[in-house]
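Appendix B, Record 12. Input sequence as logged:
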Amino acid sequence: MLLIVRHGRTVANAEGLLQGRVDNPLDMEGIRQAEQIGAALGPIDVVVSSPLRRALQTAEPLGLPCRVDERWIELDYGEWDEKPIGEITKEEWIRWRSDPAFTPPGGESLEELDRRVALGCDALLPEAEESNVAVFTHVSPIKSAVTWALGTGEQISWNLSVGQAQITRIAVRDGRPVLTSFNETGHLKKP
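Logged structural output:
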């Protein structure tokens, strides 16, 4: 089973900023969420993470060795990193949402993201057929992993909403991915 986890909250998340490759740590709420995720996942055999601190910190409560895999890093927003979402112009949003090859200035396209995440998923497929593999990552790679699991040729990231500190589960049956749950957040309890 592939258990794909979005990292806990950061100050940038709370402020509605695009984070991309900025290496922000979890805030106090994010640390609490990481503890709740650790309790909700069940038995885990293998831990894989994006190299960014917020993903690595979210994996820490499991207390297991962690393999860092660059393919699970967040989408590169380039010059849009740490920009409030509201500062992206209407024209840029329209173009970004309609063209999967669109690249934010100095960043990465959704097509490029989908390709690298699919390679990451393919690499984990044999292991996930035999073991529970938890991947700690970000919004955009989770959307790409769902695209991979569903086998869609079309870019669907704009049709998915990924909650903070969510869990998505992808089973592996006869060597093929099967999406069994998406955007689980029931494990998150308010203080």
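The two ends are 30 Å apart (CA to CA).
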